[in-house]
Amino acid sequence: MTMTLHPESSTQTSPSAWQLAWQRFGADRIGVWSAGIVLCFLALVALTAMNLVASNWEKEVAIGHAPPSWAPVAKDEGGAVQALPPVLDYTPSPTDVVDPIAKEWAQAQMAVKPAGEKPDVLATHLPMGADKWGRDVLSKTIKGAETSVLVGLAAALVATVVGAVLGAVSGWFGGWVDDLSNWLYNVFHAIPGILLILAIAAVLNTKGSAAVVVILGSTSWTGVYRLMRGEFMKHREREYVRAADAIGASNVRRMFVHILPNVSHVILVQYSLLTVACIKAEVILSYLGFGVPVDGVSWGTMLTEAQNDLLVGKWWQLLCATLAMSIFVTALSLLTDALRDALDPKVVQ
Amino acid sequence: MHAYVARRLWQMLPTMAGVILLVFFLFNWVGGDPAYVLAGLMSNQEQIDSIRTALGLNEPLYVQLWIFVKQVATFDFGASWTTGEPVAQLFASRLPASLTLMLPLLVIETVVCLVLAVGLSWVRGSRLDRGVMVFFTLLMSVSILVFIIVGQYLLAYRWGLFPVQGWGDGLWKNLSTYAPLPILLGLLVGVAPHTRLFRTFVLDEVDQDYVRTARAKGLSEARVMFVHVLRNALIPVITFVISNIPGLLLGAFLLERFFGIPGVGREIILAVERSDFPVIKAVTVYVALATMVFNLLGDLLYRLTDPRVQLR
Questions:
Q1: Between helices A137-173 and A29-49, what is the axis angle to 10°?
Q2: How far apart (Å, rounded) are the C-alpha atoms in residues A5 and A20?
Q3: Which of A217, A211, A213 has the alpha carbon at shortest distance from A188?
Q4: Are B167 and A325 in contact (CB under 8 A)?
């Protein structure tokens, strides 16, 4: 708070709550940095969605499992094929369950794909390596970011809108409307989130981004509902709302023109919290095969592929998807904290 | 107290009815005619017809609902559509593996997180505290899948410290051989969010008057933190842990799947993959019931540990 009140400036209009919040936010260096990172990701997602970036992610641009150019394995003669893990000299103990044909498989792969067979057409090294089919992992990660981030944002939007509207109506009208919404909340709240997600995934039995948005949106609105209901019950009795009533403002107008701006910071914070949760849930759903179908790519499908890659020592796809996801999720979480601090000065850390 | 319990139990009825209605709506209306699903699972038309008759699908909707309510009340969801095993028996046989994995994890995680939370509150605001909290934020941003994939690969597959996967018969064999790695990975995933939560519980206590009194008496800081503060911070922790027990059964489904542990969580994933509706319906209804009961238990335990709390 750098603002000082001089006698001569008291006639000027005082800064609005949002301006004050913006000032507080600007002073929070971590918040500004994470906002920058989140904006970079969103810009990248927008460019990808317009097919300006990573549009050829499905193209085979390198040999299968081409390693990253900076990785130590890349210095070896023969590149990708030499980068087999030292699984071969691993001695299993009797209790272990190991892949019985790992050794033969590795040898067969070596025989089928001699190093540098088509080096003039396909790259042997890429900045972040290539996957099994020689697709650029970096392009894939960017394309996967588009799916994961958009699904996360959309699912969180559905959940926030449902929760906010139900909570507003419930808190504002009270009575049987409140009882009914509360009952619905209790029912959804009684079933653990992941179980409800799986049950809905089972009955929908369709794959794709839209299905994930429906599944996650319809299950994660409860937190927003509870908060918004409380806020509306609190604000309903405030003087400014009574004053609006006195000059004849309608119910809808008082709810969404008068009260909503005063509780919108709660919604904003909940929205970014939900986005983080939905991105994480999308990854797990896609891994289990209920999310993004195999012909699409998301961070979840990348991790699924990366699991098999890792078994043959190709760690770069896992690294790239994990890094992208961690950077985005961390930035978004820190941004949420900064937003909460900036928007609600009463909260003392 | 008795009046409170009676009222809470009474309040569960509408919620339970809602859960039953929701599950019924999902599986009988959104899910469509199970004949389509069944056609993919079994070739025998007579079998499909008998399941349709058992579910009352040729009857009006209220008859179907009544059949479902009777199933819930009698714990009899019939046989699994894929394995033919009675659903009740299926869960009875999967529960021990889940408990073998989750109970030790629950105990270890709670103790570790509590000690960490009290320790961090002791040095709150210091560079160590802030550093650990930043590290936890990073840890929480990594998907649980990555922990399991990398952990299983490095610790079991590459270094051979643990078996890659599997499950035996004896309790001790499972606990000593197969469970440690999943428990370790579960701990790694849970330590960050739980320590953060428990830290806020502890920080709620450290500025209380009794803490100042304890310090004024000349007690050591270790005694103040780990005896006086810890005991009081335990109250919300107990409530949190108790009300999370039903979710634990499912929470480990990824661990169970990766490590081939025949538990309830893995069974649910299998059921969803195979569209085995009776299994999913049964789990959803009973886990919801268990969640409500354990929430009530948590509240009652809160009352027992903190007599100041008034249950209304």
A1: 110
A2: 14
A3: A217
A4: no
The answer to whether residues B303 and A233 touch, using CB atoms and an 8 Å cutoff, is: no
ipTM: 0.85
Rounded to whole angstroms, how far apart are CA atoms B265 and B269?
7
Portion 72-131 of A in contact with B at CB < 8 A: 85-87, 90-93, 95-98
Residue B40: CB atoms within 10 Å: 10
Backbone angles phi, psi at A130, to 5 degrees: -130, 160
Q: CA nearest A309: which of A140, A146, A143?
A: A140
Q: Is-contact A297 A136, C-beta < 8 A? A: no
User: Mind telling me how many Å the CA of B34 is from chain A's nearest CA?
Assistant: 10
Residue B105: HSE in the Cβ half-sphere, 13 Å Cα cutoff = 27
Q: Write the CA distances from B37 to A10, B87, B200, integer angstroms.
A: 72, 18, 48
Phi (first) and psi of residue B86, to 5 degrees: -60, 140
Determine the Cα angle at A222 with ends A221 and A224, to 5°: 70
Contact yes or no for B91/B271 (Cβ under 8 A): no
Rounded to 5 degrees, φ, ψ at B83 are -100, -15
Give B228→chain A minimum CA distance, Å.
23
DSSP string, A66-116: PPBTTSGGGGSTTGGGGG--GGGG----TT----TTHHHHHHHHHHHS-TT
- Contact at 8 Å (CB) between A95 and A113? no
Question: Which of B228, B241, B221 lies closest to B298 in space, CA to CA?
Answer: B241
B151 in contact with chain A, both atoms CB, cutoff 8 A: no
Q: B277: which chain A residues are within 8 Å (Cβ-Cβ)?
A: 202-203
| Matching residue, tokens 């268990």 | B290
Which residues of B are less than 8 Å from A290 in CB distance? 272
Cβ within 8 Å, pair B157-A333 = no
Would you list the DSSP string of A275-315?
HHHHHHHHHHHHHHTSSS-TTS--HHHHHHHHHHHHHTT--
B 197-236 residues inside an 8 A Cβ radius of A: none
Nearest to A323 by CA among A128, A160, A132: A128
Distance from CA of B138 to the nearest CA of A (A): 6
Q: Do the Cβ atoms of B299 and B7 come closer than 8 Å?
A: no
Q: How far apart are CA B138 and CA B141, in angstroms?
A: 5
pLDDT per residue, tens digit, chain A (349 aa), is: 445 545 554 556 788 878 888 888 888 888 899 999 999 999 999 999 888 877 777 777 777 777 787 777 644 444 444 444 444 555 555 555 566 777 777 777 666 655 544 444 677 777 777 887 778 888 889 988 998 999 999 999 999 999 999 999 999 998 899 999 999 999 998 888 888 888 888 888 777 888 899 999 999 999 999 999 999 999 988 999 999 999 999 998 999 889 988 888 889 889 999 999 999 998 888 888 887 776 788 888 888 888 888 888 788 888 899 999 999 999 998 898 888 888 875 654 3
- Say if CB B269 and CB B253 are below 8 A apart: yes
- Contact predicate A93/B160, CB 8 Å: yes
Q: How far is A225 from chain B (nearest CA, A)?
A: 17
Nearest C-alpha in B relative to A324: B142
Q: What are phi and psi for residue B276, nearest 5 degrees?
A: -85, 80
Six token digits for residue A55: 């549009």
> How much is the pTM?
0.82
A199–B158 CB contact, under 8 Å: no
